[in-house]
Amino acid sequence: MIDYDETMFRLFVAIRPPAPIRTFLIDRMGGVIGARWQDDAQLHITLRFIGEVDRHRANDIADALGTIRFPPFDIRLSGVGLFDRKGVVDALWAGVEPRDPIAALHRKVDRACVSTGLPPEERAYLPHATMARFGRNGGDVDGFLAVHAGLASDSFTVDSFSLFESRLGTSGASYTPVADYPAQGG
User: Fold this and answer.
1) Which end of the chain, N or C, is less surrounded by CB atoms within 10 Å?
2) Is 163 domain-assigned?
3) CATH number for the domain including 141?
4) pLDDT along the chain (186 residues), means of 10
Protein backbone atom coordinates (compact mmCIF):
# COMPACT_ATOMS: atom_id res chain seq x y z
CA MET A 1 0.00 0.00 0.00
CA ILE A 2 1.06 3.56 -0.63
CA ASP A 3 1.17 5.17 2.79
CA TYR A 4 3.51 8.13 2.58
CA ASP A 5 2.83 11.72 1.69
CA GLU A 6 2.97 12.49 -2.01
CA THR A 7 0.29 13.55 -4.42
CA MET A 8 1.30 11.52 -7.50
CA PHE A 9 3.12 8.23 -7.89
CA ARG A 10 4.86 6.90 -11.02
CA LEU A 11 4.32 3.14 -10.90
CA PHE A 12 5.09 -0.06 -12.78
CA VAL A 13 4.74 -3.79 -12.12
CA ALA A 14 7.80 -6.00 -12.60
CA ILE A 15 9.73 -9.14 -11.80
CA ARG A 16 13.09 -8.68 -10.11
CA PRO A 17 15.52 -11.37 -11.31
CA PRO A 18 17.67 -12.99 -8.61
CA ALA A 19 21.15 -11.59 -7.89
CA PRO A 20 23.09 -14.17 -9.97
CA ILE A 21 20.99 -13.32 -13.04
CA ARG A 22 21.47 -9.57 -12.49
CA THR A 23 25.24 -10.17 -12.18
CA PHE A 24 25.13 -12.20 -15.41
CA LEU A 25 23.63 -9.17 -17.19
CA ILE A 26 25.97 -6.64 -15.61
CA ASP A 27 28.99 -8.72 -16.67
CA ARG A 28 27.89 -8.36 -20.30
CA MET A 29 27.36 -4.60 -20.23
CA GLY A 30 29.85 -2.33 -21.95
CA GLY A 31 31.45 -1.55 -25.26
CA VAL A 32 28.80 0.78 -26.66
CA ILE A 33 29.60 4.48 -26.84
CA GLY A 34 26.80 6.65 -25.47
CA ALA A 35 25.05 3.83 -23.61
CA ARG A 36 23.73 4.51 -20.12
CA TRP A 37 24.01 1.03 -18.64
CA GLN A 38 21.49 0.01 -16.02
CA ASP A 39 22.84 -0.67 -12.56
CA ASP A 40 21.87 -3.60 -10.34
CA ALA A 41 19.04 -1.69 -8.65
CA GLN A 42 17.46 -0.87 -12.02
CA LEU A 43 17.36 -4.39 -13.50
CA HIS A 44 13.86 -5.85 -13.80
CA ILE A 45 11.43 -7.42 -16.25
CA THR A 46 8.42 -5.15 -16.65
CA LEU A 47 4.99 -6.75 -16.58
CA ARG A 48 3.10 -3.45 -17.00
CA PHE A 49 3.97 0.23 -16.95
CA ILE A 50 1.29 2.19 -15.11
CA GLY A 51 2.55 5.78 -15.10
CA GLU A 52 1.49 8.58 -12.79
CA VAL A 53 -1.50 8.01 -10.55
CA ASP A 54 -2.82 9.61 -7.36
CA ARG A 55 -2.69 7.90 -3.95
CA HIS A 56 -6.27 6.59 -4.18
CA ARG A 57 -5.67 4.94 -7.58
CA ALA A 58 -2.26 3.65 -6.41
CA ASN A 59 -3.88 1.89 -3.46
CA ASP A 60 -6.65 0.50 -5.69
CA ILE A 61 -3.98 -0.89 -8.03
CA ALA A 62 -2.04 -2.40 -5.12
CA ASP A 63 -5.24 -4.09 -3.87
CA ALA A 64 -6.20 -5.36 -7.34
CA LEU A 65 -2.74 -6.85 -7.89
CA GLY A 66 -3.20 -8.74 -4.61
CA THR A 67 -6.08 -10.71 -6.16
CA ILE A 68 -3.84 -12.25 -8.87
CA ARG A 69 -3.19 -15.98 -8.56
CA PHE A 70 -0.40 -17.64 -10.52
CA PRO A 71 1.83 -20.68 -10.08
CA PRO A 72 5.63 -20.27 -9.92
CA PHE A 73 7.28 -20.69 -13.32
CA ASP A 74 10.79 -20.85 -14.74
CA ILE A 75 12.23 -18.47 -17.34
CA ARG A 76 15.68 -17.46 -18.53
CA LEU A 77 17.20 -14.49 -20.32
CA SER A 78 17.82 -15.30 -23.95
CA GLY A 79 19.14 -13.19 -26.80
CA VAL A 80 19.42 -9.43 -27.12
CA GLY A 81 17.61 -6.76 -29.08
CA LEU A 82 16.92 -3.07 -29.33
CA PHE A 83 14.10 -0.59 -29.25
CA ASP A 84 14.29 2.43 -31.50
CA ARG A 85 12.37 5.61 -32.11
CA LYS A 86 12.24 6.73 -35.70
CA GLY A 87 15.35 4.72 -36.50
CA VAL A 88 17.41 5.97 -33.53
CA VAL A 89 18.38 3.34 -30.94
CA ASP A 90 16.59 4.03 -27.66
CA ALA A 91 17.44 0.93 -25.57
CA LEU A 92 19.26 -2.41 -25.56
CA TRP A 93 17.58 -5.36 -23.88
CA ALA A 94 17.89 -9.05 -23.04
CA GLY A 95 14.93 -11.20 -24.06
CA VAL A 96 13.02 -13.75 -21.99
CA GLU A 97 12.01 -17.32 -22.78
CA PRO A 98 9.76 -19.16 -22.65
CA ARG A 99 7.33 -16.30 -23.26
CA ASP A 100 4.03 -18.07 -22.55
CA PRO A 101 4.08 -18.14 -18.72
CA ILE A 102 5.29 -14.54 -18.36
CA ALA A 103 2.82 -13.35 -21.02
CA ALA A 104 0.01 -15.07 -19.07
CA LEU A 105 1.08 -13.22 -15.91
CA HIS A 106 1.28 -9.95 -17.89
CA ARG A 107 -2.34 -10.43 -19.03
CA LYS A 108 -3.47 -10.99 -15.43
CA VAL A 109 -1.62 -7.87 -14.28
CA ASP A 110 -3.13 -5.85 -17.13
CA ARG A 111 -6.65 -7.05 -16.28
CA ALA A 112 -6.12 -6.13 -12.61
CA CYS A 113 -4.98 -2.63 -13.62
CA VAL A 114 -7.94 -2.23 -15.99
CA SER A 115 -10.28 -3.19 -13.13
CA THR A 116 -9.12 -0.03 -11.32
CA GLY A 117 -10.02 2.21 -14.26
CA LEU A 118 -6.70 2.27 -16.11
CA PRO A 119 -6.83 1.79 -19.89
CA PRO A 120 -5.68 -1.60 -21.16
CA GLU A 121 -2.10 -1.97 -22.38
CA GLU A 122 -2.17 -1.29 -26.12
CA ARG A 123 1.39 -2.25 -27.09
CA ALA A 124 2.28 -5.85 -27.81
CA TYR A 125 4.01 -7.35 -24.79
CA LEU A 126 7.67 -8.23 -25.33
CA PRO A 127 9.18 -9.55 -22.08
CA HIS A 128 12.71 -8.18 -21.61
CA ALA A 129 15.23 -6.72 -19.17
CA THR A 130 16.52 -3.34 -20.28
CA MET A 131 20.33 -3.29 -20.23
CA ALA A 132 21.07 0.22 -21.54
CA ARG A 133 19.32 3.42 -22.54
CA PHE A 134 20.47 6.04 -25.02
CA GLY A 135 20.11 9.76 -25.51
CA ARG A 136 18.81 11.49 -28.63
CA ASN A 137 21.71 10.38 -30.81
CA GLY A 138 21.37 6.67 -30.07
CA GLY A 139 24.44 4.51 -30.40
CA ASP A 140 26.18 2.06 -32.68
CA VAL A 141 24.95 -1.23 -31.25
CA ASP A 142 25.66 -3.62 -34.13
CA GLY A 143 28.82 -5.01 -32.52
CA PHE A 144 27.10 -5.53 -29.17
CA LEU A 145 24.14 -7.28 -30.82
CA ALA A 146 26.47 -9.57 -32.80
CA VAL A 147 28.64 -10.51 -29.81
CA HIS A 148 25.66 -11.16 -27.50
CA ALA A 149 23.17 -12.67 -29.97
CA GLY A 150 23.49 -16.03 -28.22
CA LEU A 151 23.07 -14.61 -24.71
CA ALA A 152 21.53 -17.24 -22.45
CA SER A 153 21.31 -17.15 -18.67
CA ASP A 154 20.56 -20.00 -16.32
CA SER A 155 16.85 -20.57 -15.69
CA PHE A 156 15.33 -18.99 -12.62
CA THR A 157 12.00 -19.36 -10.87
CA VAL A 158 9.52 -16.50 -10.87
CA ASP A 159 7.77 -16.90 -7.54
CA SER A 160 6.65 -13.29 -7.06
CA PHE A 161 6.23 -9.94 -8.74
CA SER A 162 6.25 -6.42 -7.31
CA LEU A 163 4.65 -3.02 -7.65
CA PHE A 164 7.42 -0.43 -7.98
CA GLU A 165 7.55 3.33 -7.67
CA SER A 166 9.85 5.06 -10.15
CA ARG A 167 11.43 8.40 -9.30
CA LEU A 168 13.16 10.30 -12.05
CA GLY A 169 16.39 12.11 -11.13
CA THR A 170 19.38 13.73 -12.76
CA SER A 171 21.27 10.41 -12.81
CA GLY A 172 18.34 8.40 -14.14
CA ALA A 173 15.44 6.62 -12.52
CA SER A 174 15.46 4.96 -9.12
CA TYR A 175 13.01 2.17 -8.35
CA THR A 176 11.51 1.33 -4.98
CA PRO A 177 9.34 -1.75 -4.38
CA VAL A 178 5.99 -0.73 -2.86
CA ALA A 179 4.33 -4.16 -2.56
CA ASP A 180 5.25 -7.79 -3.31
CA TYR A 181 2.90 -10.46 -4.61
CA PRO A 182 3.90 -14.13 -4.18
CA ALA A 183 2.92 -17.03 -6.41
CA GLN A 184 0.52 -19.65 -5.08
CA GLY A 185 0.94 -23.38 -5.39
CA GLY A 186 3.60 -25.29 -7.19
Assistant:
1) C
2) yes
3) 3.90.1140.10
4) 67 97 96 92 96 94 97 97 88 96 97 96 94 84 94 97 89 87 83
